[in-house]
Amino acid sequence: TTYQVIMTDSSACIHIDSLVVTVDTLPNVDAGTDQAICEGDSLQLLASGANSFLWLASPSLSSTTLPNPIAFPTSTTTYFVGGLDGNGCANVDSITITVNPSPNADAGPLNLTQCGEDSVQLQATGGISYAWTPNSFISDTSIANPMVAPGSNFRYYVEVRDANGCTAVDSINI
Asked: pTM for this one?
């Protein structure tokens, strides 16, 4: 846009001057789409749309000046990033990282007693899928309630996975 100034001095002379004003568009800063992680996990962020970036200072970021810092949130957190383009124009965006809690894995009572060659049924709770280890003397390693018959003192571990994909481990002695 061009602006003109027309001025008449005390001698009735007319003076004209103009000024061109260019309005730059703001950079399209993008912090990425909101994400969900499991408790204890980290996530690499990736900002784009500008030449330089500044993340709102946070102790849970590996860097505040890189476009791709690693976030270590301990609870659901919204991170804000400012971006600066080559014209000196700035804009801001944000990303929310939802932190899902670990499932409450429970392999059952601390100890179960096996009498002779009898089988004992395990009963894990806390998730939607289960993975038992080791796979010795066990009827099925992928169900919550397998039968086991180890014949001697033995420890089984179960990894419990919830609907968010988060995992936790518990154990039981036979």
From this structure: 0.78
